Amino acid sequence: MTPVDAPVDYRFLLANERTFLAYVRTALSLQVAGLGVLQFLTGGHDAVRIGLGLVLVLTGSIVGVAGYQRFRTNERAIRAGGEIHTARATSVVTIAIAVVPLVAAVVLALT
Questions:
Q1: FRET label pair with 82: which of 14, 52, 91, 98, CA 20 to 30 Å apart?
Q2: 44 against 28, higher pLDDT
Q3: CA pair distance 108, 51, nearest whole angstrom
Q4: What pTM did the predictor assign?
């Protein structure tokens, strides 16, 4: 453990920032995909379109918030010389990204 007064290695801070920016890119991609589904998906039932679009936008919002929380937690740990904790939201996001398109494809194929 490093003392609080010791200089922080900026490589860790910059790596943390790059990770946060990756979360932001992923969140924006999911939200834009959801908005695209809401606006341009014309085949099938409206309930499927609205449900899929809202789930994608909501998942993107969750990714954005989780990325910010992880960034802040890691920033504090790096500056304090403490341990960096594992990400908690990755399993939820992975399940959402794997299951939502699969369910949507099945529902759209059946309608």
A1: 91
A2: 28
A3: 12
A4: 0.81
User: What pLDDT shows up at residue 2?
Assistant: 52
Tell me how many degrees the CA angle 65-51-70 measures, rounded to the nearest 5. Answer: 10
Q: Report how far residue 65's alpha carbon sits from residue 58's, in angstroms, rounded to the nearest whole number.
A: 11
Note the pLDDT of residue 5: 64
Question: Which SS3 state, helix, strand or coil, does residue 4 take?
Answer: coil
Got the DSSP string for 28-42? HHHHHHHHHHHHH--
Q: What are phi and psi of 8, to 5 degrees?
A: -85, 140
User: Which DSSP state fits 81?
Assistant: T
What residues have CB less than 8 Å from 61, skipping those under 6 apart? 27, 31
What is the number of helices (H) and of strands (E) in the chain?
3, 0
Angle, CA 75 vertex, CA 71 and CA 77 arms, to 5°: 120
